[in-house]
Write a structure and sequence with these properties.
The protein is an alpha/beta fold. It is 32% helix and 25% strand. The protein is globular and about 50 Å long.
């Protein structure tokens, strides 16, 4: 089973002609509300990719919270570990322009009330794959990660949004998922090589004995680790909205690993799923099913070894 310890937000999405600059107001026709939050997004992506998923987090005692609980349950996700906070449900304001670029501002709300002790020990087993992001209080991530490691869980951390990660936490991980900027930031914070994202990944992997996956947008992703040194391409597409693509990548990757796939095969499915998620507006609504990933996978180019 995948246990996702993460954020739950309601996204308010606006399609604009151009992204506003500081001090500028840009008008658009309206907005739509869509389920979001990195934790929730990755849980949905994993569930649609075929995994059994439980979500641990928090929502407010409000309409958005009710919608988010119902949405996750409809995806077949176990919601028993979602707490109700006196803070409002988290909200993200997302503007998407005509080139499918976006900017996002998040009001964390109930996500700041999430605590590691919401997850009982009996949920942390060697059969559990723990998935973490960076939209919860970081000390709660590290507390749960330490408990998970002690009980034999595998663990994935997606460092999004970018933030510092203690060296002790990195050593408790099996897999670190970062984009180019996040790879450089984490490596730089530890005084490691930042001459390139690949060099940063190699330095992190070597020092922390973990596998580092770096997503490269339209160029796919690389994996560097004790038993991994390869690149997977991106599926060629014409993007509509890139919101949620990174979350889809991590969720589908987790689903593949939870199903027992080798890392290279899981990464190929993750790269394909992330591309498919860019073909519609919104994060969760655009996430593909396992069937859609299977159908598109033959269009993905070959995996290549990297030095």
């Amino acid at each position: 089973m995948i246990l996702d310890f993460g954020s739950i937000n309601m996204d308010l999405v606006m399609a604009v002609t151009v992204l506003p600059r500081p001090g500028e107001t840009v008008l658009c026709d309206g907005y739509v509300t869509k389920p979001g939050g990195k934790g929730s997004n990755q849980a949905v992506a994993a569930a649609r990719a075929g995994a059994k998923v439980a979500m641990a987090g928090a929502v407010g005692d409000d309409g958005f919270g009710q919608v988010m609980r119902a949405t996750l349950a409809k995806e077949g996700i176990d919601t028993a570990l979602i707490a109700t906070s006196d803070r409002p449900t988290g909200v993200a304001y997302i503007c998407v322009d005509a080139k499918a670029e976006n900017f996002i501002a998040v009001g964390s709300g109930a996500n700041l009330a999430v605590r590691a002790d919401q997850v009982p020990d009996d949920r942390l087993t060697p059969d559990t794959l723990l998935v973490l992001q960076m939209e919860l209080p970081p000390e709660q991530n590290w507390a749960l990660l330490q408990r998970a490691r002690a009980r034999g869980c595998r663990a994935i951390l997606n460092v999004a949004p970018a933030a510092a990660v203690p060296e002790a936490a990195l050593r408790d991980l099996d897999l670190l998922v970062v984009n180019e900027h996040e790879a450089l930031a984490i490596a730089g914070g530890l005084g490691l090589d930042t001459s390139s994202p690949r060099a940063a990944a190699q330095a992190l992997s070597g020092r922390m004995s973990l596998t580092c996956v770096v997503t490269l947008g339209g160029e796919g992703a690389i994996a560097v680790g004790p038993q991994a040194n390869f690149a997977v391409p991106a599926l060629p597409i014409q993007p509509v909205d890139t919101t949620g693509a990174g979350d889809t990548f991590t969720g589908v990757l987790a689903a593949g690993l939870d199903a027992g796939l080798p890392l290279d095969q899981a990464l190929r499915r993750a790269s394909t799923g992330a591309a498919l998620a860019c073909l519609a507006l919104g994060a969760q609504e655009s996430m593909p099913t396992a069937t859609a990933i299977d159908a598109a996978l033959p269009r993905l180019g070959p995996t290549t070894a990297i030095g």
